Every structure is written in structure tokens, then in C-alpha cells.
Amino acid sequence: MIKVYNCHNKLLSQWMILARVYSSSETMKEISDPTKRICKIMMSCPKLGLDTTLNQSGVRVSPEIVEDVLKRFDNAGMLAYQFFEWAGKQQNYLHSVRAYHSMIESLAKIRQYQIMWDLVNSMRNKRMLNIETFCIIMRKYARAQKVEEAVYTFNVMEKYDVPPNLAAFNGLLSALCKSKNVRKAQEIFDKMKHRFVPDSKTYSILLEGWGKDPNLPKAREIFREMVDMGCSPDIVTYGIMVDVLCKAGRVDEAVSVVKDMDSRVCKPTSFIYSVLVHTYGIENQIEDAINTFTEMERNGIKADIAVYNSLIGAFCKVNKFKNVFRVLNEMDCSGVTPNSRTYNIILNSLIGRGETDEAFRVFRRMIKVCEPDADTYTMMIKMFCGKDEMKMALKVWKYMKLKQFVPSMHTFSVLINGLCEEGDVTKACVLLEEMIEKGIRPSSGTFGRVRQLLIKEERGDVVKFLQEKMNLLVKEPFCD
Predict the structure, then answer these.
(1) Of 414, 336, 315, 431, nearest to 374 (Cα)?
(2) Whose CA, among 6, 47, 131, 458, lies 20 to 30 Å from 211?
């Protein structure tokens, strides 16, 4: 027991040293990097004083700086919007199309549709609207299951002097298919395919949609129609067909498609091999996964990050972690840098098996190689909350803030729920308020849990205060 305790303390002290070293080095970088200075101000400054603090900072913004800041704060829509508005008032600065698009995505994510359309109107006045603007909006509406609004966005393009073309048509179909509304996409396709002559991309979008439904007969029907209409399948179409067959459990047929490709001009890609390796991994056919990977290399196709991630996933599935780390070493030798997805696969498997100490070691290895993403931080914080190690959960949270990473709604919720479980409603309230300040709407479950604990402690005034804060994030109505 003493040995385990000492080991844990050693890990904790190493973590604290790492955080301190990172903190001091970041302070030096912030002095010369205007983006980091702005991000630090936005992370620490109260909403009411943000404009004043930014003005006093003396930082001059450029389109590149603004785009970078908006990208970093894409989880904090209203905070990002406040910065966007401030930047727009600076001398000798004009928002780029990319800045507008980033802001539209962030606002749509938190369902601030009225402000989103205000930005669209602003872009129209400046003659900056393009097809991509409307494709972004269609994608976001579809993801929120606002199908009619997505279709409306397509139909209203003409009014905004951006006539819809095949790219916009494909954008609408893609948005619907990716949000599991393939039947609506098919209905629109059947009505409008004479207005916009479909290309291989159009058919590939529908093919993928029916594959995810899943409806293999309909997917085959789309493939046949594509060929009958004189659209030759391209490498993307073949990749989707292989994926569709694998998801339908027809792996042998998928392999036949790959072999058929070998006899044509169209050669299999690393993506296609990654699909096969991933499928074999899911089905616990580790030997087939390894053989497929080896066959790919024999065919002269260099393994990319997607194939390596599939192979790592396959080894994790059968609990062969020695092989996982061998693959990581091979990636290093091949010049392929692991990404957050690589480590998230490993972390998820280790945590699922209860190997939390090993997961923490992998996490510490990860932060020396690549940047964790929202899923990484959420997993680690949830892991420590689940072990009743709130001190460590808060250490990860602090490190995340040092990295100026804006937490997602799920990351906030995991830590708030963990604090509620511990009975620390005061800290939970502080985080909930911070969450709301950043324009991130808490789920009804998270807000309700904090509210319940506050009522139990007879702190009705705090409940009222938080409720008023929440009311400022009232969902905006959909309008033109």
C-alpha cells in the first residue's frame, strides 16, 4: 500500500514540475507572440472588462492573428464573438472571409442563429459571401437536426446574390447525409437532379449516406445509377464503397473490390487499407489486420496516420499493448507523428480496462509529442473523477488552461459533475459561471445537479444568480 502511495506521489510531483516548466516557458513566449497575449487576456479577463483590457494591451491585430484566436476559441462562441466585434473596430483592420466563417461556425455551435445571420448580412454588404458560407450554415443546421432550416438556407442563396450551383447542391446533400438524414437527401436529389447534373461526388455523398443508414441494397442502387449515368467511380467512390461493405459485414466483398481496383488504373489508397485494418480490428481478426497492413506496404503504399491509427486500434481491441508501443516506435522511425486521435485510441482502451496509472503515463508521453484535444482532456478528467482523485482532475484542468485550451461543453460537465459528486458545490458553481461566461450552455442535467445541491444547502440566492446568467444565453430564434 505504501509503495502504491509513493508511486502516485512521484507521478504527481513529476506532473507539477512539468506544469511549472511549461508555465514559465509559456510566459516568455507570450511576450513576443501577440496571439498568445490575446488568448491569455481572453482566458483570464472578466467579460465586462475584456474590450478595455484588449485596448490597453497595445496588441495590433492582423487577419492571421484574428483567425488563429477564433480557431482557438471555437468552443466559446459568445466570448469569441466579443473578440470578433472588438477586432472589427481596430484601425487598419478588416475581417477576412475565413474570420467570418470561423465566427459563423462558433455561433451556430451554440445555436445563436440570429447573430449568425447578422454576420451573413454584414458579409453581403461587403460582397464577401460565397458558396462555402452557405455550406457551413447548412452543415451546422443539419448537425443540430434542423433539417428544414438547412434546406431553407440552400433555397435562400439566390436572395443573397449567391446563385446555388452543383457545389452548393452537393453541400446540402452532404450536410443531410452526415447528420443521418439520408432519406431527405435522396428526396431532394430525386427532385433536383435535373437542375444540377450530378457528378461522381454527388453519387459518392449519397452512397456514403446509405452506407451509414445502413442500407446496403440502396447503396448498391446508387452505385449502379452512377455507372448508368456515365459517371465513372473515382478513388473516393471506391473508398466509400469499401467502407460501406465493411460496415455491412461484407468484408470479403470489400476485399474483392480492392483486388478489382488493383487490375485497373485506379489503385487502392492508404485510406482504403485503413478501413480494412480497422474492420478486422473491430472483429478481433488481428492476423488479418496485420496481413492487410503488410500487403499495403508490399504494394508500395506508404502508411499514413490513418492506417497506423487503425492498426493501433486493432491491437488495443485484443489487449496487445506491447504491440501498440512497437507501432508507436515504428511511426517515429517512419517519420509519421502520432496525433491526438492516436493517443485517444490508446487512452480510451487503457481507461476502459481500468489501467489508469498506465493511461496517465501515456498522457504524459502524449503532451511531449502532440497537443491533446477536447476528447483527451475530457477522458483524463473523467478518469480521475471516477477514481475520486479530484486533486489530479483539477491538475489536468489547470494544465489545460495553461495551454490556453478552451474546454468543450462535455469537458466542463465532467468536472462539474465530479465536483458535485464530491459535494464541492462552491467550486462547481465557479466552473458553471465560467462556462456560461464563455457562451457555453450547460446541459439541463449538469445545471440541474448544481441547482439541486444549492437548494439542499439553502443557497437560493446563488441559484437565482446562475439562472439569470443562463437567461442571457437564451437560444436565439431562427430567422432570415
Answers:
(1) 414
(2) 131
Sign of CA dihedral 36, 40, 43, 47: negative
Task: Count other C-beta atoms under 10 Å from residue 161's C-beta.
Answer: 9
Q: Which grid cell is 214? A: 445502413
Residues 38/41/44/48 CA torsion (nearest 10 deg) = -120
Q: What is the pLDDT of residues 208-252, one digit of tens each?
A: 999 999 999 999 999 999 999 999 888 999 999 999 999 899 999
> Do 77 and 109 meet the contact criterion of CB atoms below 8 Å apart?
yes
Least Cα distance to 380 among 401, 394, 370 occurs for 394
pLDDT of residue 478 exceeding 50, the answer is no
User: Hey, what's the cell of 292?
Assistant: 492487410
Q: What is the pTM of this model?
A: 0.84
* Of 35, 51, 42, 105, nearest in space to 77 by CA: 105
> Which burial class, exposed, middle or buried, applies to 264 when counting CB atoms under 10 A from its CB (0-12, 13-18, 19+)?
exposed
Whether the CB-CB separation of 451 and 463 falls below 8 Å is answered with yes
DSSP H helical ranges for 179-320? 182-192, 200-212, 216-228, 235-247, 251-262, 270-282, 286-298, 305-317
Tell the residue number behind the cell numbers 506491447, with chain if given: 322
Lowest mean pLDDT among 23-37, 92-106, 396-410: 23-37
Instruction: Quote the cell numbers at residue 19.
Output: 506544469
Spatial CA neighbour of 381 closest among 394, 368, 372: 394
Only one residue has cell 436565439, namely 476
